[in-house]
UniProtKB/TrEMBL annotation:
CDD domains: RPI_A. InterPro entries: NagB/RpiA_transferase-like, Ribose5P_isomerase_typA_subgr, Ribose5P_isomerase_type_A. The gene is rpiA. Substrate binds at residues 30-33, 86-89, 99-102, 126. Its EC number is 5.3.1.6. The active site is at 108 (proton acceptor). Homodimer. SUPFAM superfamilies: D-ribose-5-phosphate isomerase (RpiA), lid domain (SSF75445), NagB/RpiA/CoA transferase-like (SSF100950). Keywords: Isomerase. Pathway: Carbohydrate degradation; pentose phosphate pathway; D-ribose 5-phosphate from D-ribulose 5-phosphate (non-oxidative stage): step 1/1. It comes from Lacticaseibacillus saniviri JCM 17471 = DSM 24301. This is Ribose-5-phosphate isomerase A. GO terms for molecular function: ribose-5-phosphate isomerase activity. It catalyses: aldehydo-D-ribose 5-phosphate = D-ribulose 5-phosphate. The lineage of its organism: Bacteria, Bacillati, Bacillota, Bacilli, Lactobacillales.
Amino acid sequence: MAMDQNELKKTAAIKAAEFVEDGMIVGLGTGSTVTFLVEAIAKRVQEEGLHITGVATSKRTGKQAKSLGIPMKTIDEVPHVDLTIDGADEVDKNFQGIKGGGAAHAFEKVVATSSTKNIWIVDETKLVDTLGKFPLPLEVIPYGSTKVFDRLQNEGLNPKFRLNDDGERVKTHSDNYVIDLYMGHIDHPHLLANWLISQVGLLEHGLFLDIVNTVVVGTQDGPKILEAKRA
Ligand SMILES: O=C(CO)[C@H](O)[C@H](O)COP(=O)(O)O
């Protein structure tokens, strides 16, 4: 019987947990796939006596990891991170990706860029030829956010403030807003990333470029480890 998306995510997460080694400081991403990862790492901590320190990218991940007995520190309490494992919303052939479906992309990028190695865990539906079908998340400070919004609109980037189920604007852990760009396709991710990050009031975008060299993909034939060719 075919595995559903959640089962595929779980197989990728369990496989990626094998990359964690004794003594490592491990960045733990955010999202449903990471929930399976945290469970798998915690199992190794409990059953194999694996000694690690976890660094969470969201309150949700931190709470889960702590409750399962993974010793945790904040990003500011560790000198560096050895390995970060996170989910992603889209990954292209060059291992460039979109993240931020869970509105945690700013914290995730801080941890990822402090990490010696980064691995993404995804199910096979997240592999794409061109990024951008998944709306690109931005984190924007509330002050002047309509001005940022107007600029994005004038550039034809099709922005929408992300709303929660009550119709209120979603807030990140830093109390900022999320604007999603409904672009359909992103033909020049680096150019777009450079333009976005130069916009005053726009704190971070969900394009994660040249960060990841290993992607563990949950497929119907089992988890597959993809390694990027770049250095
Ligand atoms: O970037 C993220 C959160 O900001 C997540 O990693 C991404 O949205 C994937 O989530 P999931 O594992 O639930 O599919």
